Amino acid sequence: MSGQPHKRAVVLASGGLDSTVTAAIARQEGYELYLLTLAYQQRHAVEIERAKQVVCALKAEHHIVVAVDLQSIGGSALTGDLSVPKNQWSSDPGREVPVTYVPGRNLIFLSIAAAHAEVVGASVIYFGANVLDYSGYPDCRPEFIKAVEATLALGTKVGMMGGRFEIRAPLLRMSKAEIIRLGLDLRAPLHLTHSCYDPTDAVACGRCDSCLIRRRGFAEVGVVDPIPYAVS
Ligand SMILES: [Zn+2]
């Protein structure tokens, strides 16, 4: 019974819907939750406050917020260099990298997650990447995730000692509706999550890509989205 070592997982927790459902999955799979939030000078910094609320709701064992100033690098609508497109859902999102792509973001995030995992003794990193609703981001592709695992095996002390870090992206091929259904089944605190790329006073705009995808997902499930929107 007792004596079983605790399994620890680092979960990249943005305060968004996908990462919150991902954290709920990690919990259900029996892990102690080491949540990691990156404050990267994003336009939607309300995410960080929501992440703290999600941490409380999930009763996570541990949470850190790490500041990485990606605004100094620029090149993304999410860090303020470009405006966030509204009501412009691309008919073929797989062909283009959206302006909401943040250069190097997931590579940087996974590197920091692995550093944290190495220190706290976690061998699994949960990451809420998704390729289906949003196929335009190069750093959400499964081959990218596999390549980071291989890099971590080569570039960490754990790897040198024969260990491995596993990056789990359980939502990778799920639709937004499937993610919402799973979140409801797991009783994930969806009412605390934030998805909007361009909120005003912490209220979601209702018109950016991320809001449109989220709202369509809730509509498909047939459940009312519990968060308020500026535009109905
Ligand atoms: Zn929005």
Q: Give the assembly state of these chains.
A: single chain
Percent of sequence in beta strands: 5-15%
* CATH class descriptor name: Alpha Beta
Tally of strands: 5
- Helical amount among residues, as a percent range? 25-40%
User: Order of strands across the biggest sheet?
Assistant: 3-2-1-4-5
Could you list the spans in which at least 5 consecutive residues all have pLDDT below 50? none
User: What is the mean predicted local confidence, pLDDT?
Assistant: 90
Q: Can you tell me the number of structural domains?
A: 1
The H/E string reads EHEHEHEHHEHH
CATH-defined fold name: Rossmann fold
Q: Structural class, from helix and strand content?
A: alpha/beta
Q: What distance separates the N and C termini? A: 52 Å
